[in-house]
Amino acid sequence: MVIETSLGKMDVRKLKKVVHQVDNANERTTVTEYYLEGVSVHRSVDVVLKQASVTAAMLCAALK
Amino acid sequence: MANSQAMCSQFKVDILNGLHAFGASVVRAGTTKDAYKAALYLVSASRGAGDTVYSATGEVSGTNYSAGGVAVTTGTAPTLSGTTAIFTPSASIIYTTVTLSTAFDAVLIYNDTSSTKLAVSVHTFGSQTVTAGTFTLTMPTNDASNALIRLA
After folding, report:
1. Predicted ipTM?
2. Do the Cβ atoms of B125 and A42 come within 8 Å?
């Protein structure tokens, strides 16, 4: 498979893949990085928003 | 059966659909839904509840990122989940093949149809950078506990 990198398109077989994951109350994030000779050449991020930072209970209460 | 003080649940949905105006409102061009966009902001920015409109101040910049961000897919209309009015974009918000080298940690969703680009909500996440990759904001489940926008 070929991916975009900071050095242009590259075959992933030439790269080292590292996946980091963060899972907390606010988000579940997966970071996929590819390295060429120790240098990061590709970093993609997928953030799943778990907790709405926007609730309007106070707005509704004010309108009651 | 007794009377009970309450915020009518449908009213909350109607707010999300722009059917009420307790103050001065605007003349809308039509009855179609508005278009929304999502812009990313640097860790150093100050986006939050005080925002009233989209601002380019503190917005990320980089390869393949256009100022103002990307469109938000609003395929599912606001609805009720129990007594909570909810709305969640119907697809992930995706910034494709971008390079964003300066750390960012927030997205502002705003009304791109309104002339002033009215702000809707700010959502934060852990500080990130992207290198020749894709930044995806996957939406939560559209229910009373998890929806992106909830009027409880």
Report:
1. 0.88
2. no
